[in-house]
């Protein structure tokens, strides 16, 4: 096995606030190999963006960060700001939900890509511009040699996101972190934009960390998936393992709330009852227990932090009852549906 490109070990992020510490990220482990697409999935507030921002030292000074972030052998949490500026954009680039935070409305789109290239490489302006046009073409922007001289307001939402992808990939980074890059777009455009990103990444050998609250977009796009809840990774593995041999009730809940593509239209969509906890005082034991229909005192769910355990090689989850639930088929999509039939007592809601 090759060394991972990026390895996050036992990452913790806590914010100092007037109300006390907000424990946004707790003991997160992630590993991304060259050329791989890793999806990080979880409801809003689960700590996905804070995790992503901690990797490139983008958090405010109120954040206390612990753990290790190893980028090709180097610990990014301790390198000086000058080194981080090199890494940012040149080796690791980020795409955010709102392209207008990264694309400046008063500059031409092409000039911004050119500037980005010239900030990281010694190339002539003419060569950088040629590369900018080439990148716009690669992300599927029609008439790129004309579009390169336009401003962001002349681009539609989907085209802006494509331009962001062009900019993010222009310096041949080894890793792109895309934080909910398409959430603001309508569903069809979302799928197209994500396909452009993952296609291009696969073609160029770029690794991607794709952050999303929507487990549905993961299936066709990612190789690996890590599911986050209340600041922790609760399940991780290949997309096939996590979808077909689900090992955590939270993942099962996310899957049950997706529309089914395989035709069973009678199967109702089941949102997970209740709300994610406040990270000022997350629940003891398993953080998911207040919303989990399988939580039990006897299994330790209310008081003992569930350990990470292997379900199969490369697939793990943190649930006290995973083994018995999996064996009984209760975490299958049909099992979840059956268990919530009328009459069944539900936790949380
Ligand atoms: N600057 C901050 N100060 C205090 N709390 C924060 C700050 N940024 C994020 N948080 C909290 O950290 C938790 C995780 O947030 P975030 O990573 O943005 O979630 P996600 O991206 O998964 O929706 C949330 O409870 C959020 O309120
Ligand atoms: Mg976020």
Characterise the protein shown here.
It is a single chain. The chain has 349 residues and is α/β, with parallel strands linked by helices. It has 2 domains: 222 residues, P-loop containing nucleotide triphosphate hydrolases (Rossmann fold, 3-Layer(aba) Sandwich); 97 residues, no CATH class. Helices cover 32% and strands 21% of the residues. It has 12 helices and 12 strands. The strands form 2 sheets. Strands 6-7-8-3-9-10-12-11 form an 8-stranded mixed sheet, with helices on both faces. The chain has a 4-stranded antiparallel sheet with strand order 2-1-4-5, covered by helices on one side. A hairpin with a 6-residue loop joins strand 1 and strand 2. Helix 10 packs across helix 12. The longest helix is centred in the middle third of the chain and has 18 residues. The chain is globular. It starts with 5 loop residues before the first strand and ends in a 10-residue tail after the last helix. The C terminus is likely disordered. The site of adenosine-5'-diphosphate has 15 residues, from strand 2 and helix 1.
